[in-house]
Amino acid sequence: MVKEVEIKLLRESDHVELMVDEDNKLSTKLWVESKKLWIVAGPAIFTRISMFGIFAITQAFIGHIGNTEMAAFSLVFHVLARFSIGLLMGMASGLETLCGQAFGAKHYHMLGIYLQRSWIVELGFSLLIIPLFIFSSPILKLLGQTDEISEMANIISLWYIPVVYSYLFSYTLQMYLQAQSKNMIITWLGALSLIIHAFLCWISVQYFGLGVPGLMISMIISSWIPIIGQLIYVFDGGCPLTWTGFSIHAFHDLWPVVKLSVSSGVMLCLEIWYNSLLILLTGNMKDAEVAINALSICLNVNGWELMLSFGFLAAASVRVSNELGRGNAKAAKFSIMVVVSTSLAFGILIWALVLGFRHSFSYIFSASTEVADAVSELSILLGFTLLLNSVQPVLSAGVAVGAGWQGIVAYVNIVCYYLIGIPIGVLLGYVAQLGVKGIWMGMIGGTMVQTLVLIYFTYKTDWEKQVSMAQAHVNRWAIPSQHESGSGTNNA
């Protein structure tokens, strides 16, 4: 009897130890995955904050020059610039898929070739964007904007063309370096450009009185500083495994890169243009200047939070693509859970801060009490947007890019944004006469539907099948390396 009791107690003890080991194993996995996440997300967040900070600083200085100048700059950035950002950054996300999966499969030399192919493809597509900036005034007037704001926007948009070309190299180099977790060089250069930009803006406006042209010159200089630094880093031996010099192979198999880049560009464009339409629809209302400025400030705050989300989506993309390239489906799923949970926690924190300071944060960008009152009224909707944006971009542009689902997500965006969100927003804004609030409420509804669809899609995905597809892509496009001692031709 005593022996049976001892055996029973031993079995219970083993069971308790097993549970403790499982708990420790889970906590260890969380710790290890979180470290991998922050290696990518930390520098990526700071880099994107630095990039967005250049716009935010410029907007703050322009806002104190005049309401017309601020409204014009907001239109240029949120409509024309975001159009180009959506296309070029979206196309670069195709490079992120290729580089991430190739790096996970140890086809290191292919990253440099993919980078060169992406430059060729994006340079061609960028030529299609420039006429939008040259002829921005008639385009904006055709879209219902006032003559005064449109003419000022045309002046700003011409200055913006060199900044557009900086995006081409900035996003492709970021995707290439992120796939290797070489983010710190981007971070330091981004911080340097932000400091220089703030100083140049202050000097050009306060001491030389150059106004808008002075601010735009500062923006051009600050946008190209990180690119020059990153090119020096890559060409001068910073990536010895993945950059082996310019190659004729960059001109081969361009069509698959074009297809992936275009599907990636369409996916992200549909998402970024969604908010741009919010600005355009607002410009057709009464008191458009105040409404655009208030909405622009809200979208500015939303943009800061999106920089956090973009950092987390970069981590999701790199982690998912690396693990799929290595053939580890379980690790890919676990990384998704960790990054979504972390991003949501930050979203809740920012949501609370915005609601707490909703009556005062607008004065950073404008001294107008009318604008401040309008921002305060929109702050509740801004809070809901911030919560959604802490999850939605990580799934739509992070997990989707890592797994190569760009084409599928593009269709989801069309349905949720343009067949659900915008029609409801127009009905609430114009028919129900709720104004900006109604338009924004409808668009939040579209984003919510899209988020739920992506959560369901991610949950139902066969990740083992995704592993097979990723390895098939890597092996099909691999070119034997002449510079690596066999490492570039190993299969995962």
Structure characteristics:
492 residues; mainly alpha; 2 domains; 16 helices; globular; disordered N terminus; disordered C terminus
What do you see in this structure?
- The protein has helices at residues 2-63, 67-104, 109-126, 130-134, 136-142, 147-178, 184-207, 211-238, 254-283, 288-326, 329-356, 369-389, 392-403, 406-431, 435-460, 463-477.
- It is mainly alpha-helical and 492 residues long.
- The protein folds into two domains: 31-252, no CATH class; 258-476, no CATH class.
- Helix 1 (2-63) runs parallel beside helix 7 (184-207), helix 10 runs antiparallel to helix 11 and helix 11 runs antiparallel to helix 12.
- The radius of gyration is 24 Å and the shape is globular.
Number of structurally distinct domains: 2
Total of helices: 16
The percentage of residues in β strands lies in under 5%
Low-confidence stretches: 1-23, 483-492
H/E topology pattern:
HHHHHHHHHHHHHHHH
- Rg is 24 Å
Q: How would you sum up the global shape?
A: globular
Oligomer: single chain
Q: How much helix, percentage-wise, in residues?
A: over 70%
Tell me the total number of β-strands.
Answer: 0
**What structural class do you assign from the helix and strand content?**
mainly alpha
- Mean of pLDDT: 77
Can you give me a brief rundown of this structure?
The chain is an all-alpha fold and 492 residues long. It has helices at 2-63, 67-104, 109-126, 130-134, 136-142, 147-178, 184-207, 211-238, 254-283, 288-326, 329-356, 369-389, 392-403, 406-431, 435-460, 463-477. The longest helix is centred in the N-terminal third of the chain and has 62 residues, at 2-63.
